[in-house]
Amino acid sequence: MDAVNQTRVTEFVFLGLTDNWVLELLFFVTFSITYTLTLLGNILIVVTIVFTPRLHTPMYFFLSNLSLIDICHSSVTVPKMLEGFLLERKTISFDNCIAQLFFLHLFACAEIFLLTIMAYDRYVAICTPLHYAIVMNMKICVRLVFALWLGGTIHSLAQTFLTIRLPYCGPNVIDSYFCDVPPVIKLACTDTYLTGMLIVSNSGTISLTCFLALVTSYTIILVSLRKQSAEGRRKAWATCSAHFMVVAFFFGPCIFLYSRPDTSFSIDKVVSVFYTVVTPLLNPLIYTLRNEEVKSAMKQLRERQVVFVKSCT
């Protein structure tokens, strides 16, 4: 018995999304295209903002950071998921599993904080426009971004510590396609109720608190729009509706997955796919298709590239 207790799990086995090889092939093609579009779309947004001087404002500075986070967030889980579609036995080493869940929570928490900051930015710009240049200057914006990364790191370290402090001596099968804290701690060889409650109080509190802050900000903005001109209301509504769509798509799955104690539902995998694969693709689509300024900047950047190529030839 002592020998069994001292045996440490060295790898985990994923059950994946399905065991049907036809569906696995279909998922591989679909998610490969989705991941490629996610990378290209977010990189395009970053490049457009960097090379367009008129977009060097706090709102677009935060948007470029959101695109970077989405690239990193999807890259934590999607490549390993795609690899699993091609393998009969889907495994990950213990150390890589811990690294995956650390970076998953780092980028997810960073995005939660960033979306909250973006809501505050819109609140200041619409409700107190005369103070905007002072309250949201670039120096403050850089500090806010540094703070969100620091907060995300602290949160992720806490989640990782709560996970690795538990003993793992078997079983080692994870009913998912990536390593996350809830499914991993279920495999621990000890009672995890207290740990589960600590994890929920950490992740759940952050998600719910930031979501309530976001809803409050947008409610105040909507109320204040009554005092704006018709054109001002149209521009503010276009910007805020895009932000709120991103918030709903990201916070909904987060709250669903991380705000409940040791319970799981059959729909969890579907929600996880939406949260880790689909949402990072939707963000660039929402911000480009609904933002005339970004589309105009992309068009001008493409025209400058064409002129540059012609001049070189």
Describe this entry's structure for a reader.
The chain is mainly alpha-helical and 313 residues long. It has a single domain, classed as Rhopdopsin 7-helix transmembrane proteins, CATH 1.20.1070.10. 76% of the residues lie in helices and 3% in strands. A 3-stranded mixed sheet has the order 2-1-3. Helix 4 packs antiparallel against helix 6, helix 4 packs parallel to helix 8 and helix 8 packs antiparallel against helix 9. The longest helix is centred in the middle third of the chain and has 34 residues. The N terminus is likely disordered.
Question: How are the SSEs ordered, and which strands pair?
Answer:
Elements: H1 2-6, E1 11-14, H2 21-50, H3 58-85, E2 90-93, H4 94-127, H5 132-135, H6 138-164, E3 173-174, H7 181-185, H8 193-224, H9 230-258, H10 268-289, H11 292-312
Parallel strand pairs: 1-3
Antiparallel strand pairs: 1-2
Helix pairs in contact: 2-3, 2-10, 2-11, 3-4, 3-10, 4-6, 4-8, 4-9, 6-8, 8-9, 9-10
Subcellular location: Cell membrane; Membrane
Transmembrane segments: 25-52, 98-120, 140-158, 206-225, 237-258, 270-289
Keywords: Cell membrane, G-protein coupled receptor, Membrane, Olfaction, Receptor, Sensory transduction, Transducer, Transmembrane, Transmembrane helix
Short description:
With 313 residues, the protein is mainly alpha-helical. Helix content is 76%, strand content 3%.
Relevant terms:
313 residues; mainly alpha; Rhopdopsin 7-helix transmembrane proteins; three-stranded mixed sheet; 11 helices; 3% strand; disordered N terminus; olfactory receptor activity; receptor; Olfactory receptor; transmembrane; cell membrane
